[in-house]
């Protein structure tokens, strides 16, 4: 069986507004990843991204596609892919792993670029009433009268349902935000580094009850790139290769935020598939980088992946001791998207690699981490991967 490794990682400047074009930032990230791996552009025979180039009101969500990067770097490829349907933000990684295992490519660039900091109003424009939405006959007929059209509203309803079913509280959930900010203080690239307390969290502005502003991640301008390689082809490369032990992106329910099982969603489908593909268990994981586009999604992933029981996520994170860098499950050690900024799932994989390489400096988890987990999405689309250093 062909093993696939992450042989290189690269990141552009990350900020609320970065004065560089999307393609320039992507090239920055790719060149950094190539240098990290010790590869040249001529070594690359594959390219993958998610969700591909978007235009109009959604352009800031994904301003760069495969064709632009092929031209910018003068790549000669045997395989390439870009699309928005799959295992959430990890879809580009899932497809690249499959291509390498199938023998279509040996070294694949996988990238994700955002200009959401510069385009902070685009969601309002994209989600607002339009000519196509003046008459509705689908689920929007129950949402438009209440102006509940954004992902925030959907997640807030799932969050409220979890509170109702299991007695979860805002004080418990707030530990995820506080922990992320504590870790971000040690990350020079993080967007928000000033410490916050649980009282700051409880007093912060409500966005969609029971979700407050500190439950929401920070849009950024950013690009992250990885080099995925056939393990044999990466044997003599520059950086420590990190093995992709298992990946998953299953979906057994509707591809919509309108879920019948609101508190659980797609994370549970992906998690079940992940553990079916490895002999490792949740107790083997040394560090977890779990998607926090909203803090509640992190709670969902903790339960779905088996780090605690269903409905026990609130008690698991309460007080932040278990999820601290020196706790039993160090969580989102770079600050997560809540504090380090939204890199749309790719920042979690990057941080997992850095931790397993033991290159995280002040924020390095204690001991000798061998196994990391990284997830993305968690609502109607979800993906997760298990990484090992071996």
From TrEMBL:
GO terms for molecular function: acetyl-CoA C-acyltransferase activity. It comes from the Bacteria. Gene3D superfamilies: 3.40.47.10. Pfam families: Thiolase_C_1. Residues 255-380 form the Thiolase C-terminal domain. InterPro entries: Thiolase (IPR002155), Thiolase-like (IPR016039), Thiolase_C_2 (IPR055140). PANTHER family: ACETYL-COA C-ACETYLTRANSFERASE, NON-SPECIFIC LIPID-TRANSFER PROTEIN-LIKE 2. This is Thiolase family protein. It comes from Sphingomonas crocodyli.
